[in-house]
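Re: the request from the purification team.
They wanted to know what the chain is likely to look like in 3D before they choose a buffer screen. I agreed to run a prediction and write the result into the notebook, where they can find it.
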Amino acid sequence: MGFTDKIAGLLKKKESEHIEIVSLENLDAHILSRIKENDERISEQSEIFLDKILKDIDDLAQFLESLREKEREEMFKKLDTIVKSSQKQFADSLKHVLERVHLERKDYEGLTEFHQQVTDALQQMQKLSRMHGRYLYLAFEKEMRTFNKTVKEMATYHHLLGRFLHSQGKEVVDLQNLREGLAKRRDVETAIQSLEREKAQTRTEITSLEAKIQQLETHMKERETSEEYEKVLAYEDHQNTVREELAAVEKKVYNILHPLDRDFRKFKRQVELGNVSFSLDILEEYEPLTDQFFNEEEGYPTLKKIASTMRDALEKQVIKEKGHKKEKVLDILGGILKGELADFQKEYHMLKKELAKQPVRKDILQDIEGSRRSIGENKSRIEDLKSRMEDISSKIESAGKEMRNIEAEIREECRGVGLELEE
């Protein structure tokens, strides 16, 4: 086979010979194996282009080394100065350009990177040739022709290498894209697994809280049906009854004494004016009448003293009151002096003593209330967790849909490289 035919054969696109069936679990390993095979083949077949390009680079490097110090033919002084400057700049600049070209690896990615470096180098050579070439041709025509021939050959094989990589590297690119798709699938799968774990943990927490609620409800029921609880309830009922009776006594006394409030203030004013002889301090301490009455000692002597003096003041018209109103006030004052409030006072203090009795222990009520509060808190927590479960389930569903779309893309891409996934 001739050199041209060999190159033509290399530039033909590689076609898949048959369909291979691979499991999804083994796909990544199979792709890596295929990429390795392709890299080895491409590395071997690219030698014909690489050898030429690398040799041209070496030849150019040697040329530049000699050009830098090469003697020039005698010229006009001004032109000689220009050529000398171009000679040095051209050689130094191109040397730096060539030094940036490296063949690190001979796999597809390494060759693609090398091809790009050569592309950049050729562009720089073209630019430098335009800048300095016409002057250098005047002094080194033969050498510059050789230089241009070498660059042209290098460009030819660079172009052929590009076509070769394009025709032979498609499968490598497709396989690498497949690997990226698999990596995306793994990421989504990992996310789904993480969500499933979170969902399971949330479900476990809900189950644990439900069991705790059941325990609390059982405990609360046991406490509420206990003899101790019955005693506490009976005590509470009794205390409520006592409070109601106490309130009733207070209301009765208030209804009796309240009508005296206006005349009591009139009486106090007359004492302040000196029209009635009585202790102002006692009057100030005895306001309001109802409250101070309940604080009096048995028999309420202070209130009787006030009532007696007020009655005298009314009868003597020091306190101005007349008609039915006067008779009503005098009647109330008379009742006070006769001791008609004594029974109310005794009943009031008896009820107060009853309320002040040492209560039964109420730990059971605190226990039941604590259980009820914990049940409420746990139920609220369960609602939050159920809401989180719904959110997690929605994310899992969304991720599952994304996973199916990725797998569909993977199946489609597999067909492009002669692979078919097992069902």
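For the purification team: The first helix runs from residue 3 to 11.
Please add any questions underneath this entry.
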